[in-house]
Amino acid sequence: MPTSNVPLDAAFWIWGCVLAVFLGFAIYPILTLGPYIRAGCRINIHRNRIPPDNKVRQPNPNGDAFVLFLSGVGRVSALTMSRREQGILHRLAELCSDAVLLDDVFAYSINNLPLVSHRRLSPMWRWALRQKLKKRLHNSALGYLINLRNILHILISADSRYAMVYNRGCAHVITDHLQQYGYDLAQPKPLVIVSYSGAGQIAAGAVQHLSDEYRLPVYVLMLACFFTASGIDRASHVWEFIGTTDQAYRFCLLFSPSRWLIPRLSLWRRLTAAGRTTRIDMGAMKHTGRGGYLDRNSVTPEGVPFIDATAQAMADVINRIRIDTESPKEA
Questions:
Q1: C-alpha distances in angstroms, 217 versus 198, 203, 209?
Q2: Which one of 86, 123, 129, 281 is most buried, by most CB atoms within 10 A?
Q3: 3-state SS, one letter per residue, for 128-181
Q4: Sheet containing 99-102: which strands, arranged edge to edge?
């Protein structure tokens, strides 16, 4: 019997790949949240205590504030901080010596589980991390699979269909982590969440539950962050640190209409009008890399390295929060 072979041209494979990607994006939130929902929104939180690094992750029973740093989308675990991020953390620890500074929360996991261990796909993520750390262009491009995966979690946090469940899980991770360092939920101290880039959405989503469910006084510092306004209104105050040459921030802002100041009913506009948001101009700083907020080689017109200027601006806000929250007690 004669058979006919139907030729499969390039369009077939292109549309097939597009459909596969679309279906993958559609079911990914369900795969991510399914185990969490089946467990009654209470699952085992992965704990991996990391030894103190200088004054970072150093328990302090007399600390008058807790500062939690959430990293950008390139992170795969609580252990993989970039040198630039480590640099600003050490500077903040020196400038805010009376605060407990923490950085070992993996913001892109609903149970704090790192990508590179205790997962079925851990070998793939370890391979992707190795590729990302290589200097050759084609290798590092493959490593950006990590960024894509973490961006999907940012989108889940911002999606109203999944946000309530996902963000509540992130809030549980944060409170569990704080208690490991002596934070008393019954007598809460100021919690300052410092977010970089995409982690801003994770922080914004968790704020609602940290405030409503745990009654914590939460302050948020956004370093060139992408986030929606939903939930952030529960924060006591929000500071945005933005450079004039940060085009990545401005591009992503286009996809967050809840933060546009033009609509009359914009939540972000109402928060701004109420004096609960502050924008701090960081000068001619870019989003990342050379000339970025954490660059130690580029300097301000006054001759201060960008990373030092960023750390000082953040430390000024953190120390102001500490002083303002102590004043009523002393009175």
A1: 22, 14, 11
A2: 129
A3: HHHHHHCCCHHHHHHHCHHHHHHHHHHHHHHCCCCHHHHHHHHHHHHHHHHHHC
A4: 99-102, 65-70, 191-196, 218-223, 237-242, 277-281
What is the per-residue pLDDT across 261-287, written as a single tens digit (0 to 9) for each? Answer: 666 667 888 898 899 999 999 999 999
Question: Do 202 and 186 contact (CB within 8 A), yes or no?
Answer: no
pTM: 0.89
Q: Which amino acid, one-letter code, is at 15? A: W
Tell me the Ramachandran region of residue 40: left when phi exceeds 0, alpha when psi lies from -120 to 50, beta otherwise.
left
User: Per residue in 306-329, pLDDT tens?
Assistant: 999 999 999 999 999 998 877 555
CA of 40: how far to CAs of 33, 43, 118, 169, in Å?
11, 8, 22, 11
Residue 285 identity: M
Q: Give CA–CA dist 131/134, Å, rounded.
A: 5
Tokens of 169: 């899980």
